[in-house]
Design a protein that fits this description.
3 copies of one chain form a homotrimer.
Chain A (H helix, E strand, L loop, with lengths): L5 E9 L5 E5 L4 E2 L3 H8 L4 E4 L2 H10 L3 H9 L4 E6 L8 H12 L13 H4 L3 E4 L2 E4 L3 H10 L6 E5 L14 E2 L9 E3 L3 E3 L4 E2 L3 E3 L3 E3 L2 E2 L4 E2 L4 E2 L4 E2 L12 E2 L4 E2 L4 E2 L8 E2 L4 E2 L4 E5 L5 E6 L9 E5 L6 E5 L3 H11 L1
Chain lengths: 333, 333, 333
């Protein structure tokens, strides 16, 4: 077993005061084994700026010589980041490394220690000229203008967008500004223009995502999120329950959930289910079995949620028999 | 009558392996007549790369000499695409030509044969350096970085955004990333930041669009889509019914429809009507006439849909008398 | 007291026909006093193109020498805009000056005379090469292509995005294309990817904004707008009532309001309250007190709006006693 949690060679942008703005890791490693483990053994743990010789040697050992050739040729300063274990974040470089691990599909959302990430990521102006210290932006806009250039500012945020750093295979992303670095997009996932995926959140693939995947939320294979559908995040009022959505679910357009769902669940377009929503559960014959709060159904499979057009009642249909259903619900109480 | 369905002179981007990435047609023709028909007669059908002489001659004949002058001067390779009929799509060039026909307002949504378009459009990284083969993107990011440049990736998708290719007259588009090439935006249409228009979909104009127009959906003159409102598409769970919205309608913010609407219809903010929604129809005096499913009202005019705040019932008000209404509903059954 | 309402030194883009496209004011002044008032006294009112000498002198007097140095060195033509009072807008320069006053936090939304702003702002193509006259765009795309360059079109709109002109301190903006110049973002405000802020609208800060702040809407300190939540604007069907939201409110995801709210109000996720929504008010013991229309609760504090999952009724809970509540409601009738 490896005694290194993660390792990567990367490139940083810095401002005029030598403050690090971001970090790009073209091919991070998790739990490096064998030759790779040996290669990184001599590297100190933490963040190390490399001499050109060491950079070239390490690049060769971790299989990055070809990719990094244009940088190595110019003696572009490279950095090595070696994390011995998955501890809370202590600097911008290890924050970026963990976000890369997620987007490179080397770690699943909620599997990494991201404690203190907000404290260590600086607020950056993401521009057509690359990342700029937000304090330097005013002057940068005027300087560009004096040279007859346009400086386009895309965002002012702690997190960059994923695709400037990582483009996983087999995905389509209609509006890249809506996927943060640290999103996990599985093979076969399409994120349409209205879709959004936060860091430490993701779709395991294949998925059609036209809704919002909040921080901490994982969506299973074959599940579709309709346009503007919402998954409640723990960062924004969702409370203690971590929402997740199983496989083969369909969350309708403008619908949403504040509870985790199992597999093969459907929420009708325009209906929002929260933990506190009182609703009626119907059995396979459409007969009412019980009144419950949304949270009592958390994680169950084969549920169809809708609000009835005539009674105004939120109902949950299932394909199970009343007795089986009653037992299942009791088991979760 | 012309024996040519469509013709255009265009410009392509290719990758290093000569694979075509996209195609720009500054002024496509549909059913060319008279002199134009004669000009294109000698061009073989399908996609033909032109010699500089032929390119210059054709450009003059189809009225593109001035526009294309900077390209012709450099002997930039041009391509001619001639479609004899509106057959299924066979290559990227004819896919792009049909998308241009829609955005140039030469064809209405749902009037073109777009069969196999997904199969022939490659997945492209749309970047600040233009389209890049998605397989070349990783290296392109590093190469840019080694030259001190920023490569901004805007999307990874089969469809580009419209305004890099076509900007129809008399429109405003607040966020261009949300309008795909192949969208049809009529004169006088404003698409606000929350608006979205897919390919083969559109607003006939004038319209205020702050909601989503899904593939295949057409919105009539004078109709407003409120913020985040949804039209259900056939590509994503809308089933067999093609949604369309007539003239002078108002779809409220966060509302949506899975059924086609006639003229002068309103859906209250936050209400989603699907084909399966049970609802109560009220006559001009507010008296209940009938319980129906949403789909029975498909295509009717002068309807106001809301969910009552006290009964929770979805109701549909109209300005018609009960008896007239009953007949109209029967006629559609 | 100052006899000048506002003053600024700025930079304009023009097209080939000398038509002004936009205007950047790095540091506008409102009601300049003392030395500043004296400095601008000699400047004619309205819009004046400055000679290099006058520009340099004025820049020094208003404290902009350092910032504008790269422009002054090149004798870049600067413009002075001096508004004696807050009159209706008469040209593009004073429109831009007022939009800058808002985004620089020098004026609150709804405090400026913006009459005729739509008439004086031209429709512009906002591109990677800066603003382009929309009539020149087709040719600009082809010219760029002939030079092997990509011209990226970000928007075709009367209003530019804020952050290309003003980046207020202490804010995060995840997708800059969704904040128009003229938005007011107070210290400590985060606008997430789904957030939107129109011109003459804003969040006083600190706020977490994941919903849409329509033109004319102000959101108070400590209030959160959930993902895709909606505030109804007067420009788009909201009618006469100007919506505002007080302090410490929470508008749930996919929820919305067409009425102004006081402090500490909550709207449950997925619920839309309009002025016409009939609903039941419950007192602190959960007992029904009265049926009202939404508009009767306009501006009240300490309200919780939800739609009950079993009755389908829209209810409004409060922490007040029935009798107190009844009086408060009567007072507003």
């Amino acid at each position: 077993m490896s005694d290194v949690f993660a390792f990567a060679l990367g490139l940083r942008h810095k401002n005029a005061d030598d403050r690090v703005l971001d970090c790009l890791f073209p091919q991070p490693l998790i739990h490096p084994q064998g030759d790779l483990a040996e290669a990184v053994q001599s590297v100190p743990s933490g963040c190390t700026e490399l001499t050109p010789e060491v950079a070239a040697k390490l690049a060769a050992q971790v299989g990055l010589s070809a990719k990094l050739a244009p940088l190595l040729e110019r003696d572009e300063p490279l950095v090595a980041v070696k994390l011995v274990d998955d501890a809370p974040i202590t600097c911008i470089e290890d924050a970026y490394l963990k976000l890369h691990l997620l987007s490179h599909r080397l770690s699943l959302p909620n599997s990494l220690n991201l404690e203190r990430i907000f404290a260590h990521l600086p607020n950056i102006a993401w521009t057509s000229a690359g990342p700029i210290d937000v304090n330097d932006l005013d002057q940068a806009i005027l300087n560009a203008r004096s040279e007859g250039l346009n400086l386009e500012v895309f965002a002012v945020d702690k997190f960059p967008k994923m695709v400037n750093y990582v483009v996983p295979t087999g995905v389509r992303i209609a509006d890249a500004s809506r996927i943060r670095l640290g999103a996990y997009l599985g093979e076969g996932t399409t994120v349409m223009h209205e879709g959004f995926v936060n860091f430490n959140a993701g779709a395991l693939g294949p998925n059609m995502i036209e809704g919002r995947i909040s921080q901490g939320v994982i969506v299973g294979a074959g599940t579709d999120l309709g346009g503007s559908s919402s998954t409640m995040g723990t960062l924004s009022g969702g409370g203690e329950i971590i929402v997740s959505i199983g496989e083969q679910c369909l969350i309708g357009a403008n619908a949403g959930t504040g509870i985790p769902l199992g597999d093969r669940c459907t929420i009708e377009a325009g209906v929002y289910i929260t933990g506190g929503t009182p609703l009626v559960v119907l059995d396979e014959d459409g007969q009412p079995v019980r009144e419950v709060k949304g949270r009592e159904l958390a994680g169950h499979s084969d549920l169809l949620f809708m609000r009835h057009g005539l009674s105004g009642q939120v109902i949950c249909r299932t394909n199970r028999q009343a007795i089986e259903l009653n037992n299942a619900l009791h088991a979760h109480n």
